[in-house]
Write a structure and sequence with these properties.
With 134 residues, this protein is of the alpha+beta class. It has one domain. It contains 1 helix and 7 strands; from the N terminus they run H-E-E-E-E-E-E-E. It is elongated, with a radius of gyration of 20 Å. It starts with a helix and ends in a 21-residue tail after the last strand. It comes from Rhodanobacter umsongensis. InterPro entries: DUF3301. This is DUF3301 domain-containing protein.
Length: 134
């Protein structure tokens, strides 16, 4: 009986280590994707890291697949900190949420100026039915 319990304990430990390695690799892929998206949209990825915010099952082509949500922070002009999120299914990006640029008001002059054009930092997304991540 002791051999069987030791074997089960060893299998459970191996499963935990395997799951940890798989999630670590997925997080590294998400970090690379966040860095690529930030570079593409003229943003700075702060802290050079992402964090797992949630996971859910999503039906893709009739199959249920695990979709992971990662959160990160970006800077538009180097003086701010804005939230961003990306959703991944396996190695593929399935959704992206980045901050938009708003007009800034100058109190001393009363004029309004804009940072780079908003179209450079807006990513069109398709509606997500039943999204509970926001």
């Amino acid at each position: 009986m002791s051999d069987l319990s030791n074997l089960l304990l060893l299998l459970a430990l191996a499963g935990i280590v395997g799951l940890w390695l798989k999630l670590s690799l997925a997080c590294e892929r998400a970090t690379r994707e966040a860095r690529r998206q930030c570079q593409q949209h003229g943003l700075q990825l702060l802290d050079e890291t992402v964090g797992l915010r949630g996971a859910r099952l999503r039906r893709v082509n009739g199959l249920r697949m695990l979709e992971r949500c990662y959160g990160f922070e970006v800077s538009i002009d180097g003086h701010d900190r804005e939230p961003g999120r990306l959703w991944m299914i396996g190695d593929a990006l399935s959704g992206l949420s980045l901050p938009t640029i708003e007009l800034l008001a100058h109190e001393e002059t009363g004029t309004r100026t804009a940072l780079p054009p908003p179209s450079d930092n807006v990513v069109p997304l398709r509606p997500r039915a039943g999204n509970r991540l926001h």
